[in-house]
Amino acid sequence: MRVVRTVRADVPPERIGHTQTHEHVLSKLASVRQGSMLDSAEAIRLDNYYEVRRHHSVFDLTVNDVEDAVAELGEYAAHGGSAMVDATSIGIGRDPEGLLAVAERTGVHIVMGAGYYQREFHPAGLDDRSRADLAAEMSRDVTEGVGERRIRSGVIGEIGLSWPVHPVERRVLEAACDAQRDTGAALLVHPGRHADAPLDAMRIIRAVGGDQDRVIMSHIDRTLFDLPAMVELAETGCYLEFDLFGQESSYYPFADIDMPNDATRVDHLVALRGRGFGRRLLVAQDICSKTHLRRYGGEGYAHLIRNVLPLMRRKGLDDAAIGELTVANPREALAFAA
Question: Which family does it belong to (predicted)?
Fold first, then answer.
């Protein structure tokens, strides 16, 4: 029997509705100073909102309040949100007990990640661990769970890569492929911020025998910007995840990247469907800061439902196509044999 493994229980895929496959319900990305990030722990106010949203800050990148999460996911559920992947891996504030509490109080099916994020966030001691040891840990996260309540992961990732890939990041990715083969869970990859990074990651995965059809390549919309490059990646068999909906700044704080807006993202989805890759596309918002939350003036997790789905319809995607993107594809990507 195939299931979607959530922090509360295994769920038959047909019980999962609208799903966003890359969010952060509880996370802490402020543990490492990145790019032009503001060195400030000041609360968000009307007079500093723009600067914080543009550059992020220590306060902004700490999203670990269960009460905030309950309120935000409650709104997501009220607008028809059924499930989401919490892509928070070890080192960036993964909180299994917190996720379970949020899921129990909101009814949202939360899929927890396993493994490690990119080099800057590696915890002490990771350098000395073997590939076999790391693979065993990730497999246990999926099959046995963590903590006293044995809360289980339902996806391996997000596995973070820099550019170029650091040797320890490569070891973690190779171990993640081993765990993917062992458990059947999908592998969620955060590629480095370079146009060559997604294909490079897929080459590593292929070299160690990873299941390319069970790979979700994140952040396509901040990494690839033309259709031929997207098609080349899709031909490897992986899922292409456009997961930054709602983030429409020309001033990407972590690298010199010209970000697309939501309309351009939809245009790319339409074009890829036209090339026959409709069943290999996923969508999300990658909410990971307070300024993305409704409480702090942001778009909230329901932005895709409230604003992007009407935009998709305006650009020619009918209800069947939207259902494929938001329900059928996530079900297929996340489900595996129990």
Answer: Belongs to the metallo-dependent hydrolases superfamily. Phosphotriesterase family.
Domains in the chain: boundaries: 2-337
Q: DSSP readout, 195-230?
A: TTHHHHHHHHHHHTT--GGGEEE--GGGT--SHHHH
**At 23, is the secondary structure helix, strand, or coil?**
strand
Give 40's pLDDT tier (boundaries 50, 70, 90).
confident
Q: What are phi and psi of 46, to 5 degrees?
A: -60, -35
- CB-based contact 69:292 (threshold 8 Å): no
Coil, strand or helix: which one is 257? Answer: coil
CB contact at 8 A, 190 and 216: no
Paired with 4 in beta bridges are 11
Is the confidence at residue 36, as pLDDT, over 80?
no
Q: How far is 197 from 216, CA to CA, in rounded Å?
A: 14
Structure tokens at 250: 């020309």
CB contact set of 154 (below 8 Å; sequence gap of 6+): 4, 5, 6, 7, 85, 111, 112, 142, 185, 334
Question: Minimal CA–CA distance to 301: which of 89, 104, 112, 63?
Answer: 63
User: What is the spatial distance between Cα 262 and Cα 249, in angstroms, rounded to a whole number?
Assistant: 11
Contact predicate 115/138, CB 8 Å: yes
Instruction: Please report, as a single letter, which amino acid is at residue 182.
Output: D
CA distance linking residue 97 with residue 300, whole number of Å: 22
Per the CB < 8 A criterion, the answer to whether 89 and 153 are in contact is: no
CATH 3.20.20.140 is held by the domain 2-337: yes
- Single-letter code of the amino acid located at 117: Y
How do strand 2-5 and strand 336-337 relate by DSSP bridges?
Answer: antiparallel
Among 65, 154, 119, CA closest to 146: 154
Distance CA 113, CA 155 (A): 5
CA atoms of 238 and 327, how far apart (whole Å): 17
Across 54-82, average pLDDT: 95
